[in-house]
């Protein structure tokens, strides 16, 4: 009996232990290892000559890295803003008690079920001037039509934005739709009696009430943007040239193909810091919010 | 002259009829309470008056002008909601001023109106707070302030007190009554609480299943219910409704109530309603409110006719101000309301006084009043 009750007490710990150990080693252990590598003279293989922060100063001196960072700034800001606006707009339209909502909602949500690799490949074909949109328009007889952004150094990053927005805005819409459904109907009635038009009701009352949803959407989209890798690899492979290089693709190429593991590791740590700077304030505000009665 | 008039109002969703031919009216400055169990259509009726839900047929007139088809904001009404429906992102002041802002009232005038209403409701110190920082009672006041500031022709209240705790509810009830006395504006008020209905109303409309059961002053509703539903719904503790047999006693009538293990209790009724003679030899429902059934010393001295009977008391519930005694008559539990210090003990037989003036009779089949 005593043994049995002791076992019962231990059982949850025993069951959880393997996954905890695995997570500790392969997530936190490797984060620490990466942090350590970023301060070593590792080239093709890890080596343990300590060089302090010199990898970081080298990294920030690389034009290639600055390219990746500025691409990330363009990509992340457009991706987050467009996805949020589009998601909110779709959610508002779907919230008008329309017919066939049950059919439309999954249609918009479906791209999220695809992996970024599939999205990237599909959009690569679609945007390719030789086989995609431009070619189709030419076949239909619109010979002057030209859409070559994906081949253009200055515009290729916007193609990444298009594909990423297509993938994520349905998900953002679902988040906003859940938020809109939570709005007390009586508030809308009260606003109607106050004489507010539908546009005013949304602008002055409902959209401000969506603040927590904007915050959640921002956190989800921002961390997707920072770690965006597979989409770029499938869509443009970082090219043309380095036109669509993002920190994640930069990290991979320096660590595994350019034999600059130290610099690659330091770029990984910079990305980790970026994600922490978004997630930690978010978690802090969420957890503090829960404590309030 | 009636100020708010509802004529043959019908409302249906598809084939489901929510409101069935409702006709009501209330004079200017009146306090109309719509009361009924949940799902009776009282909130739908209020929303129809507000214009938040379209009606199927009929007419609604405010100050002799039909408002059917008018947008809610054009009906010159203000509404207080059950959930208060405050705009969570605006301050208290912003909430109160929002309607005026939409109507383009200049800022100084808005400020003055906010101040006037805030003083009236004693919420001046809360004006810069957000609704989430307020207690339930404070939110309730803000919601009322938002309605008051419009100075409308008709106030609509949709169960405004049901989210408050018991003590606050009674305070706010008094407050609403005081405000009504001061402002003199017509009010339509929805509640499921019959005590609220009785205390606040000048006119009560009792609804059930979308049908108007009875419409009248609180004392009419309480003392002269039209049917069993109204009799049972209004009053706490509820009216005792027992099966009684009507017997002819020479030219007069008497009722006989079955008693446990003994002779039935026979009460002669000198001033029986004329319709009751048709029921001689048949059963009727004998309705008597607990306060009309008391100990002999507590009986109403002004009552025209008082019947007496010995009843076996099963349970005694002292409530402080009164003592409730439960006995069994006509096969049902019957609650009598006695003086607090009445000499009564469970398990003993006591003599009870029946105030026969206050008794109402119903047909057991149609459940309608026998007049």
From TrEMBL, chain A:
GO biological process: transmembrane transport
Subcellular location: Cell membrane
Keywords: Cell membrane, Membrane, Transmembrane, Transmembrane helix, Transport
Keyword field contains Thylakoid: no
Topological type in the membrane: Multi-pass membrane protein
CDD domains given in the database record: TM_PBP2
Residue ranges of the TM segments: 14-36, 72-95, 107-127, 155-180, 212-229, 261-284
Pfam families found in the cross-reference section: BPD_transp_1
Origin superkingdom: Bacteria
Positions of the ABC transmembrane type-1 domain: 69-284
GO CC field: plasma membrane
Family annotation (Gene3D superfamilies): MetI-like
Keyword Cell membrane assigned: yes
Assigned protein family: Belongs to the binding-protein-dependent transport system permease family.
Protein known as: Carbohydrate ABC transporter membrane protein 1 (CUT1 family)
Species of provenance: Hoeflea marina
Automatic annotation (TrEMBL), chain B:
Cited SMART domains: AAA
Organism domain of life: Bacteria
Annotated keywords: ATP-binding, Nucleotide-binding, Transport
Example of a GO MF term: ATP hydrolysis activity
UniProt cross-references to InterPro entries, sorted A to Z: AAA+_ATPase, ABC_transporter-like_ATP-bd, ABC_transporter-like_CS, ABC_transpr_MalK-like, ABC_transpr_MalK/UgpC-like, Mo/tungstate-bd_C_term_dom, NA-bd_OB-fold, OB_MalK-like
Pfam families reported for this sequence: ABC_tran (PF00005), OB_MalK (PF17912)
GO-annotated cellular components: ATP-binding cassette (ABC) transporter complex, substrate-binding subunit-containing
A GO BP annotation: carbohydrate transport
Membrane topology per record: Peripheral membrane protein
Family indicated by similarity: Belongs to the ABC transporter superfamily.
NCBIfam families for the chain: PRK11650.1
Designated name of the protein: Carbohydrate ABC transporter ATP-binding protein (CUT1 family)
